[in-house]
DNA sequence: AACCAGGACGTGA
DNA sequence: TCACGTCATGGT
């Protein structure tokens, strides 16, 4: 089956996913289906609307590295509740403070360092969109995180390849065991229209499909 | 009670 | 380049 057909099949089965989850004012949950407060935004591609929301997505992308979203979201909510979910506060906070707050996401020492490095970088952007190479040159940002940031925070059609994607395509017989990141990414680039909405939904659907089964 | 979760980096070969 | 060790918490 083709890449495009697989998308149709997944979409039919699971519907729009509306990634990336955002917390909004007054909200204290990242769970899906929460309309009034944050959570996911089904069929609403107008987010992120502010720099703060863009930064929130970037932060989430770092916190969820090799970690379930359930755990990462706890760390994100801790940051939010302590008014630390912004660049200046993260730079101002001590390492020890951040260690405690993001602990549920695991790798708290590495992730604290990553958040501080990224915060400084984000301020330097002054609202501009980073290039992929700029992101990859940052300590703590690899290909998947860079693509997640570009796709979900900046609406740039970069397909996000994660462990689920590899397993999924391997099972479909579309890639070999040791296909590399860029090889897998090219498969989507070559077979899909470069539409950020399509890329956003596709990646989210692969994850949702894997979780459901 | 192992196993793994929406990875990335450091190292030695 | 590449294979492997390290980082860390908390769900099933």
Shape: globular
Mean pLDDT: 91
Assign a percent range to the helix content: 55-70%
Taken as a percent bin, the fraction of beta residues is under 5%
Q: How many strands, what sense, and barrel or not for the largest sheet?
A: none
- Order of helices and strands, N to C? HHHHHHHHHHH
The radius of gyration computed from the alpha-carbon positions, rounded to a whole number of angstroms, is 17 Å
Q: Ranges with pLDDT <50 over ≥5 residues?
A: 34-39
Number of helices: 11
Structural class by secondary-structure content:
mainly alpha
Beta strands, count = 0
Terminal-residue CA separation: 20 Å
Number of domains: 2
Describe the model:
This protein is mainly α and 213 residues long. It has two domains: 1-40 and 161-213; 49-128, Orthogonal Bundle (Endonuclease III, domain 1), CATH 1.10.340.30. The chain contains eleven helices and no strands. It has helices at 3-14, 51-63, 69-81, 87-92, 95-102, 108-125, 132-136, 143-153, 163-171, 181-191, 196-212. It is globular. It starts with a helix and ends with a helix. The structure holds a DNA duplex (13 and 12 nucleotides).
């Amino acid at each position: 089956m083709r890449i495009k057909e697989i998308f149709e099949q997944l979409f039919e089965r699971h519907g729009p996913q509306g990634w990336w989850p955002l917390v909004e004012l007054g909200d204290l949950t990242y769970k899906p289906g929460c309309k009034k407060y944050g959570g996911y935004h089904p069929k609403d591609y107008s987010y992120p609307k502010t720099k703060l929301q863009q930064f929130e997505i970037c932060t989430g992308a770092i916190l969820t590295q090799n970690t379930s979203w359930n755990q990462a979201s706890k760390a994100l909510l801790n940051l939010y509740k302590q008014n630390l979910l912004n660049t200046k506060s993260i730079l101002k906070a001590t390492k020890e403070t951040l260690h405690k707050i993001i602990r549920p996401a695991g790798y708290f020492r590495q992730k604290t360092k990553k958040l501080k490095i990224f915060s400084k970088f984000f301020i330097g952007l002054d609202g501009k969109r980073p290039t992929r190479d700029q992101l990859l040159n940052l300590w703590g940002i690899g290909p998947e995180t860079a693509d997640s940031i570009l796709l979900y925070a900046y609406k740039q059609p970069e397909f996000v390849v994660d462990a689920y994607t590899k397993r999924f395509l391997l099972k479909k017989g579309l890639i070999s065991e040791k296909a590399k990141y860029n090889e897998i990414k090219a498969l989507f680039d070559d077979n899909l229209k470069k539409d950020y909405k399509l890329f956003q939904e596709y990646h989210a659907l692969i994850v949702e499909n894997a979780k459901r089964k």
